[in-house]
Amino acid sequence: MRFKKHFLMLAVFNVIFFASLFSQEDKSLQIKKCARLETGFALHFLSANDDNKIIPGAVFQYCYGIKSDKKLGVGIGGGFEYFEKELFFPIFIDAFYFLNQKKNTSFINLKAGYSLGWSNSYSDLINSNFKGGPDIGICFGKKILRIDQISMYLCAKYDHQFAGIQYENDEHKKQYKTLHYNIVIVSLGFLLEE
Fold first, then answer.
1. Whose CB among 31, 76, 155, 159 lies 3.0–4.6 Å from 183's, allowing a Cys bridge?
2. Would you kindly state where each structural domain of the chain is located, as residue ranges?
3. 12 in helix, strand or coil?
4. CATH number, span 2-193
5. What is the pLDDT of residues 95-154, one digit of tens each?
6. Which is more confidently placed, 99 or 52?
7. Sign of dihedral through CA atoms 25, 26, 27, 32?
8. What is the pTM of this model?
9. Which of 81, 102, 91, 115 is nearest to 153 (CA)?
């Protein structure tokens, strides 16, 4: 249910985005293609069985989208998040908002999607099967350098990755446990604007 609410929020943001595009007084609206590529360092905080763990990792993401000549954009992307014993492949939609039109502006980015996941953390459980799940996140960033159509930026993100583990207990009854990965990411990215 929570995941549906987050998708609903992102859908509302997209409706507002497109409504603002088509309600501009200047009818010479320009839609521009853009692409983002970023890589970074991540820490995930896993709460499972009251055993809190902090595990470092690496993140790589690519997103392709469209941006108005104003400040709003939407896109679709994918990537991977690698940790010591977990690997996630998120596929997501995102929306971003630039705070102004200066070349070194700050921005906010929202994303929602689904991640395929693998883990060998639970190999001690009988007939265990790890599954990925919904992924939502928010990012705050700042363009720090612009050369022609390419901007370099730094950003700080929070992602909440849902996952699950299905296994059999000692009485061979199937059990399912939902896992919550709270992931903090600091990354360097490149934005290519048309």
1. 159
2. 2-193
3. helix
4. 2.40.160.20
5. 989 898 788 889 999 999 999 999 888 877 778 889 999 999 999 999 998 888 899 999
6. 99
7. negative
8. 0.78
9. 102
